[in-house]
Amino acid sequence: MWFSRKKEDGRYIMGVDLGVGGIKLVELESKNGRAYLSTYGFTEGFLGIEKKAMSEEAGGEQKPGQLAAAVASKEDQAREAQEIKRLGATLKVLVEKSGAKGKEAVASIPISAVFSAVITVTKTDDKAQIAGMVQQEAKKLLPVAIEDVVLDYSPLPEIFTDVEAMKKTRMKLMMTAAPRKVIERYSAIFKQAGLTLKSLETESFALVRALIGNDPSAVMLLDMGMARTNVYLIRGAVPLMHRSINIGGRDFSKALVEKLHVTPEEAEQMKIDLAMRKDKGSQLLDAFKPAADPIVQEIKYHMQLFEKQLGGSTARPEKIILTGGSSLLPNLDTYLEDYFQMRAYVGDPWARIVYPDVLKMALDQIGPRFGISIGLALMEALPQKEEKQEKAAQK
Predict the structure, then answer these.
(1) What pLDDT, on a 0 to 100 scale, did the predictor assign at position 210?
(2) Beta-bridge partners for 36
(3) Segment (H or E) for 270
(4) What total of structural domains would you count in the chain?
(5) CA neighbor of 394 nearest in space, from 74, 154, 207
(6) Residue 2 located in a structural domain
(7) What residues make up the domain containing 29?
(8) What integer best gives the mean pLDDT of the chain?
(9) Contact 329, 274 (CB under 8 A)
(10) Does any domain span residue 1?
(11) Are 210 and 371 in contact (CB under 8 A)?
């Protein structure tokens, strides 16, 4: 989270996810220590903003921890200004049509645009001293000048300090660095939409807040979007590892087109119809397996890497949580559960939100698409004491 904030009761806050598949917006009302659903809305269609973040700030195809500086030509700058104007106008229309009451928003930064690392520093309660140590570590680790990024850090639970003697003198932090150009871009988009951008946060932390909360166990989290699937390894409610593969909802649609010889439009409708079915005893459709198997192999690799780095089989995740629009493919959770012999299920991001019972069926159907936007809004809507992380922003 790269901006300071002041929480107040009785106010409205929007969580806005600018994703490849469109904009997802959730507005919550903070009241009496609870988060109440005010409204929600979404757009369809390719936005391009995540692709921009990857190509410019992450050096093209994502590589862990990679941040690349980009020198924009006048033509690029003109296109960028036009894109910001378009996205801002789209967001403004969505806010108006959703009937949102407030003007404050929290947005997510694609994980591909953010550098993150676990660092160890001297234990102290002096925040200024901690900030100085974080800056020193950042200078050693960042592939770009520290002046080109905005730093943030979060203290990790003591479970990450495995040597008992070290707990008295050392502590571990999760350090994140976001390119200033990305932050400036988002600020400009929300200004264009007539909104006050209260804070920015990485997608992973928003998903953890919405789907995992304070659960200290090791969890594998799959965010299956339209263009790609992000695989996160969470421990102590902290995202420790991340990998991204270019397989998403459109690949499952393509599989249906090729297998059943239907049109892309028919394939999309078939996915929607299949997602409405609850055939728990059935198997994953054979047509989907070519797209699902690379995801399975990525999970397998991720688990092996995590076990190797954090202490053998005791570090093995206890469950797999699915989210994102493509997570509702029928029996995908069962397929993963059978393969890995552990619990796998689609997460419910609405679990910590108060809403009318009459909306439950509709919200359950769209919930996986709104995990990020819900987690973003919860950061501002819930009291400080209910947050899993105490974050200290450093500009």
Answers:
(1) 96
(2) 29, 354
(3) helix 264-275
(4) 1
(5) 154
(6) no
(7) 11-393
(8) 82
(9) yes
(10) no
(11) yes
Pair 233, 220: CB distance under 8 Å: yes
Token pair for residue 127? 């925040």
Q: Per the domain annotation, does 5 fall within a domain?
A: no
Contact 13, 106 (CB under 8 A): yes
The pLDDT of residue 208: 95
Q: 241 by DSSP, 3-state: which? A: strand
**Amino acid in the structure at residue 10:** G
For the ranges 52-56, 177-181, 300-304, which has the lowest average pLDDT? Answer: 52-56
Distances in Å between the Cα of 364 and the Cα atoms of 209, 249, 355, 368 are: 18, 18, 12, 8
- Whole-angstrom Cα distance, residue 321 to residue 223? 9
pLDDT at 392: 35
Cα–Cα distance for residue pair 193/100, rounded to 1 Å: 13
- Name 34's bridge partners: 31
Average pLDDT score over residue span 295-313: 78
10 φ/ψ angles, rounded to the nearest 5 degrees: 75, 30
Mean pLDDT lowest among 42-46, 137-141, 223-227, 317-321: 42-46
Q: How many CB atoms lie within 10 A of CB 346?
A: 21
CA distance readout (Å), 356 to 33, 38, 149, 193, 214:
18, 10, 42, 29, 25
Q: Are 228 and 295 in contact (CB under 8 A)?
A: no
- How crowded is the C-beta side of 276, counted as CA atoms within 13 Å? 7
Place of tokens 């150009």: 181
Instruction: Provide the residue type at 195 as one letter.
Output: L
Structure tokens at 171: 């502590």
CATH of the domain at 309: 3.30.420.40
Q: Which residues pair with 24 in a beta bridge?
A: 17, 42
Average pLDDT of the residues in 198-214: 93
Judge whether 6 lies within some domain. no
Cα–Cα nearest to 394, from 198, 178, 205: 178
Check if the beta carbon of residue 16 is closer than 8 Å to that of residue 109: no
Q: Name residue, tokens 């799959």.
A: 222
pLDDT more than 70, % of the chain: 81
Determine which helix (DSSP H) or strand (DSSP E) holds 171, and give its type and residue range.
strand 170-179
Amino acid type, 108:
S
